[in-house]
Amino acid sequence: MSKFDIEKELQLSLIEEMMKIFYLQLMNPHADHKLPLFLTESSAKEYGHIYKNVGAPPSLDQLDTYTEEAYIPAGSDVSIIKHSRYSPANFHSHDFFEILCVLHGSCTNYISSHTLEMKEGDICIIAPKTLHSLRAYQDDFVGFNLLLRSSTFDKAFFGTLAEKDILASFFSKTLYGTDIEESYILFHTLGDEELKGYIIMVLEEYFGTRSYKERMLNSILNMFFITLLRNHEKAAITPHPEGKEPDKKIISILNYIQNNYKTVSMPELSTKFNYSERHITRLLKEYTGDTFLEILQRTRIQKAANLLTNPDLTIQDIIELIGYTDISHFYRVFRKYYHMTPIQYRENSLP
After folding, report:
1. Is residue 113 situated within a structural domain?
2. Is residue 256, in this structure, part of any structural domain at all?
């Protein structure tokens, strides 16, 4: 039986009660504050005194930057912090991954120049070095920050995507791209109870004292990411590389190409997603840097490379399976990507 009690989590802690009092003194509670709360030097010191008086460490929003060493204990892969309501919404960044899970209520997540309104069930993966801030000035908000080392996130998240070449490449560029200031992936899970169950399992394991804690946490996190991607991958929202309003269909378009690489065409995509061919062409180029044909070609060749590890398939079988009809063209394209012939690739990959 779950030990997680949402009613207990909704109760304000002593530090939250103190910060709420100070917040109400500092801000007009009836005003429509649409920006993060920027602290003056004196008010920042006052918040610092609150933390010091109750013997609590600073929350994430109390600092400008922080590191794995400061927030993830040595020998651990993950740290979990419950977000303190009414804490100042200061912009900050870090060198690890943060997964914000909203279990109750709503909040405003500011990422660089964009505003993400999040509600119960929403999950946001925030990449290292991304400037962000969280505004949660309501009693009924309950949110937890899962802090993961980059190496741990890579194994859990991208390990799940190993067979999905287009999406693995796209998500990798989204979260690690050097030319992207707003690196995040937002999932609106619509109260997915299965996913919520894994989040609660992570919390109970982390705050518990049972043996093999670290190994169990890593196992549950793997299940969490598998469930997240299995149930909500197509609805993921990522930032537009040029800072424009994110397109909510781009993940679905890439996923459709991935699943239908053998026969998919641009007219088919246009009909399927109710976008003009010109619009899809522009979206693909903006988000991936490649044209539709380049994406399709790379997907087919990567699939061919995977199939070449199966010695029971002939080269001709593989060519037909990936949707090519011209053998000479296939050989040229394969050499372009792997700098060797399919036969040489097979010889190098087989034991």
Report:
1. yes
2. no
Q: What CATH number should be reported for the domain holding residue 45?
A: 2.60.120.280
Domain count, the chain: 2
Strand partners, 14: none
**Structure tokens given for 189:** 């899970």
What burial class does residue 168 get, using C-beta atoms within 10 Å of its C-beta: 0-12 exposed, 13-18 middle, 19+ buried? middle
Q: What is the mean pLDDT of each run of 10 residues along the chain (351 residues)?
A: 81 89 68 47 52 49 67 90 88 90 95 89 93 91 95 84 72 74 89 95 94 93 92 90 87 92 94 96 92 93 92 92 90 93 88 69
Between CA 275 and CA 165 the distance in angstroms is 24
Most distant CA atoms of the chain, gap in Å: 75
- Domain limits for position 269: 262-349
Do 43 and 120 fall into the same domain?
A: yes
Q: What is the pLDDT of residue 179?
A: 59
Among candidate residues 235, 254, 281, the one where a domain is terminated: 235
Q: Structure tokens of 8? A: 């207990």
For the entire predicted model, the pTM comes to: 0.83
Q: How would DSSP label each residue in 188-241?
A: --SS-HHHHHHHHHHHHHHHS--TTHHHHHHHHHHHHHHHHHHHHGGG-B---T
